[in-house]
Specification:
One of its GO terms (molecular function) is calcium ion binding. Helices cover about 60% and strands about 5% of the residues. The protein is mainly alpha-helical. It has 2 domains: about 100 residues, Recoverin, domain 1, CATH 1.10.238.10; about 80 residues, Orthogonal Bundle (Recoverin, domain 1). The strands form 2 sheets. The chain has a two-stranded antiparallel ribbon with strand order 1-2. The protein is elongated, with a radius of gyration of 18 Å.
């Protein structure tokens, strides 16, 4: 059910304001893509949006993102109302941050992705989970978990400014501002530059 021209124009204008990194033409293209993705999705969400599977496939084919744990977390950061589907507003506003966000917006976004339980901290366990999935397996003679535990300790040493054994948003933000490469320290959750 294509929306009326007037409704579409209002949506485009509204999203151009809220997702401030895209112009009207880009927003229109993203809405078209959204409609195509919804059409692909035969679920009960189809009227309002598309589900995790379609989202995952799209990020995989568009940006080469393959890590399931990361993709699930990215889905959760996009799905702000926690209804299990991505609405057109969540889609455009989420991509605005992911593709064109300021450093500040990207720091918030990455922190939310890595904070698996949403308690406002990235704990040792969460770092371990994220790194375990994003690193290549080592030769069989070495316990891969040991290497990951070492990495977690290194990350904490470098990023845990208040020395409480976990990363608060303030720790994470300070670390990333000092060294931008740490933005995706716990797994690739932003598309490649290209």
């Amino acid at each position: 059910a294509a929306m009326s021209r007037k409704r579409l124009q209002l949506l485009v204008e509204s999203l151009t304001r809220s997702a401030k990194h895209f112009n009207e033409g880009e927003v229109q293209c993203l809405i078209k893509l959204f409609d195509a993705l919804v059409a692909k999705c035969s679920s009960h969400f189809a009227a309002v949006g598309f589900n995790r599977i379609v989202f995952r496939d799209t990020l995989h084919s568009a940006f080469g993102m393959t890590d399931d744990v990361v993709l699930d977390r990215v889905f959760s950061t996009f799905d702000r109302d926690n209804k299990g589907c991505i609405t057109v507003v969540e889609w455009v506003e989420g991509l605005a941050v992911m593709l064109r966000g300021t450093l500040e917006e990207k720091i918030k976004y990455c922190f939310m992705v890595y904070d698996l339980n949403g308690d406002g901290y990235i704990s040792r366990e969460e770092m371990f989970q994220m790194l375990k999935n994003s690193l290549l397996k080592q030769p069989a003679d070495e316990d891969p978990d040991e290497g990951i535990k070492d990495l977690v300790e290194i990350a904490l040493k470098k990023m845990d400014y208040d020395h409480d054994g976990k990363l608060s948003f303030t720790d994470f933000e300070k670390a990333v501002r000092d060294e931008n490469l740490l933005l995706e320290a716990f797994g690739p959750c932003l598309p490649d530059i290209k």
